[in-house]
Design a protein that fits this description.
This protein has 312 residues and is an alpha+beta fold. The protein has 10 helices and 16 strands. The protein has an 11-stranded mixed beta sheet. A 3-stranded antiparallel beta sheet has the order 1-3-4. It has a two-stranded antiparallel ribbon with strand order 14-15. A hairpin with a 2-residue loop joins strand 3 (48-52) and strand 4. The longest helix has 17 residues, at 88-104. The protein is elongated, with a radius of gyration of 20 Å.
Length: 312
């Protein structure tokens, strides 16, 4: 067993952290400090670096939540990030060592959200195997919807009709920085469900400024009126629709269908997965069938997003 050190992250380690994430098997831009730290005021950061022979062999984005540590509630997924040189036995030892590290600090549990395989640069499910040696329990399973890089097997006639309706209404798709219009539309849509956007408009703009190539805002416009929109995360292996918003007029004209066909075309063109995100509610226990059916209409099929709990 290699001798491992576990060091609490500090801002002076940002460059070393980000360089490791950039060359890792399963790290993504949302594991970078440029992304993580935009909402650092919301979380008690407990991120750790794993060191062996004076080299980083793993990083663990994490924050304290009550008596436990989570990886990471401010990210779509967290988990331990590791590279090509970190073999399965070392990933196992790193997770075991992290458990001891946080137990010594007085924490009682770790909540763990692994990186789904579609976001891996190279196969990296060593951590999922290692979790069983720590007696980790599956505590939540959400269902996402994904289209593979070679495109959908079949698209429903309903979605195709929506696209044609939008074209007949002269709806056009634009990419741009129309964040005020987008946010107003998104907030209006979510208000009907007694919800608000996870991000503030200031945060959307800050992320775009920090990571301009990672965020794309696409809108469907009819006579310069925004009728549907989506904020897209561009990962190395996938496009992910973080938000979808559709106005009443957009529903009439099929604007969202046309918009999503556009995003799908971009994903296929660049040989990327298209991820629509979770269609589950109430802690993953209930499937929103209408939402999932809409995504399935584009040819997307289910991908699980799991959360585990390690008792310390």
């Amino acid at each position: 067993m290699r001798l491992l050190q576990f060091i609490h992250y500090s801002p002076d380690m940002e460059d070393d952290w980000d360089r490791f994430v950039a060359k890792s098997r399963n790290g993504t831009f949302i594991h970078s400090r440029a992304f993580m730290d935009y909402h650092s005021d919301r979380f008690d950061d407990q991120s750790a670096l794993v060191i062996s022979d004076d080299e980083i062999v793993g990083v663990f984005p994490a924050h304290a939540i009550m008596s436990g540590v989570a990886s990471h509630n401010g990210l779509t997924f967290g988990g331990i990030v590791y590279g090509m040189d970190q073999r399965a036995s070392l990933v196992r030892d790193m997770l075991a060592g992290l458990s001891d590290h946080f137990a010594t600090a007085g924490f009682k549990k770790i909540t763990y959200k692994a990186v789904p395989h579609i976001f891996h640069r190279y196969p990296a499910e060593d951590d999922l195997f290692a979790l069983q040696s720590l007696n980790a329990k599956l505590i939540r399973r959400d269902l996402s919807a994904v289209i593979p890089p070679n495109g959908p097997d079949k698209i429903s006639s309903l979605r195709k009709r929506g696209k044609k309706k939008a074209q007949r209404n002269n709806v056009v798709i634009r990419e741009g920085d129309f964040y005020e219009e987008f946010y107003a539309l998104l907030a209006h849509v979510l208000r009907k469900h007694n919800a608000t956007p996870i991000h503030s408009i200031a945060e959307l703009k800050l992320l775009k400024k920090r990571l301009p190539e990672r965020f794309k805002l696409f809108g469907a416009f009819e006579n310069d009126e925004l009728t549907a929109a989506t904020w897209v995360f561009r990962f190395d292996t996938a496009l992910h629709t973080q938000y979808l918003a559709n106005s009443p007029r957009g529903q009439e004209t099929g604007a969202l269908d046309l918009l999503l066909f556009h995003v799908l075309d971009l994903a296929v063109q660049d040989n990327l997965y298209l991820s629509f995100g979770a269609s589950t509610e109430r802690g993953g226990s209930v499937l929103n069938e209408g939402l999932m059916t809409q995504k399935e209409g584009f040819g997307a099929r289910g991908l699980v997003l799991d959360q585990y709990e390690i008792t310390l």
